[in-house]
């Protein structure tokens, strides 16, 4: 990893209430997480699609699929973090095919400023854990890593990235306008680049989702 001035890490304690994840900062302020906001404010059609899928495969099988994906994601994220920090790499066999596909993209990530950092946007009212702030082909950006069994159409990922950009810029006084999503599967890895105008478009959509969330919580 190149010697680059690192952004400071902020303390955050995770907590849950009514199936909503929150981060609590060092002063005791509690803000809902980006993922929970997106899940809570999903359109009814998307929620029904998930319910139908759970009924189709069964609750036990659906939970097993979720847990397998979660464990895989944790392993891959740890592997990526070690690689970007120039730490020793010992790839578990369960994620080897995923790792082989994503590695060529990681080789073009440099000037890492933040890895697995907690962010708070007190004005908009949300928090999150960003995967990476670095440069991709020498362009500063926010980077999100995902793993899946297959490549799927984009859903809430662009809003998630826009939310990270907004929080990072607010928290650190930066002007990050680009974002990158890298999804790896056993067959391939795909990188989706978001230009500043796209990030701004999704930022406005994200602001609406945050507003919808707080309305659902009874906060005007």
Helical/strand content category: alpha+beta
Largest sheet entry: 5 strands, mixed
CATH topology: Lambda Exonuclease, Chain A
How are strands sequenced across the largest beta sheet?
4-5-6-7-8
N-to-C order of helices and strands: EEEHHHHEEEHEEH
Descriptive report:
The chain is α+β, with helices and mostly antiparallel strands. The protein has one domain: Lambda Exonuclease, Chain A (Alpha-Beta Complex), CATH 3.90.320. It is built from six helices and eight strands; from the N terminus they run E-E-E-H-H-H-H-E-E-E-H-E-E-H. The protein has helices spanning 34-40, 44-57, 59-84, 96-106, 157-172, 196-216, and strands at residues 13-17, 20-24, 30-32, 109-121, 126-136, 139-147, 179-184, 189-194. The chain has a five-stranded mixed beta sheet with strand order 4-5-6-7-8, with helices on both faces. Strands 1-2-3 form a three-stranded antiparallel beta sheet. Helix 2 (44-57) crosses helix 3 (59-84) and helix 5 crosses helix 6 (196-216). The longest helix has 26 residues, at 59-84. It is globular and about 45 Å long. The protein starts with 12 loop residues before the first strand and ends with a helix.
């Amino acid at each position: 990893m190149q010697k680059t001035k690192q952004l400071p890490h902020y303390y955050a304690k995770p907590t849950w209430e009514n199936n909503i994840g929150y981060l609590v900062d060092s002063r005791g302020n509690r803000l809902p997480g980006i993922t929970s906001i997106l899940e809570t404010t999903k359109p009814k059609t998307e929620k029904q699609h998930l319910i139908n899928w759970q009924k189709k495969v069964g609750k036990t099988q659906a939970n097993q699929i979720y847990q397998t994906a979660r464990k895989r994601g944790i392993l891959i994220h740890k592997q990526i973090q070690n690689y970007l920090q120039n730490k020793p790499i010992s790839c578990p066999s369960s994620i080897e095919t995923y790792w082989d596909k994503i590695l060529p993209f990681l080789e073009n990530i440099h000037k890492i400023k933040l890895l697995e950092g907690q962010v708070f946007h007190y004005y908009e009212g949300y928090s999150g854990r960003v995967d990476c702030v670095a440069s991709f082909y020498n362009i500063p950006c926010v980077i999100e890593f995902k793993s899946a069994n297959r490549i799927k159409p984009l859903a809430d990922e662009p809003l998630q990235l826009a939310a990270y950009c907004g929080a990072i810029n607010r928290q650190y006084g930066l002007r990050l306008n680009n974002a990158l999503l890298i999804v790896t599967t056993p067959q391939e890895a795909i990188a989706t680049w978001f230009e500043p105008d796209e990030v701004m478009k999704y930022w406005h959509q994200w602001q609406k989702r945050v507003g919808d969330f707080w309305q659902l919580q009874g906060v005007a």
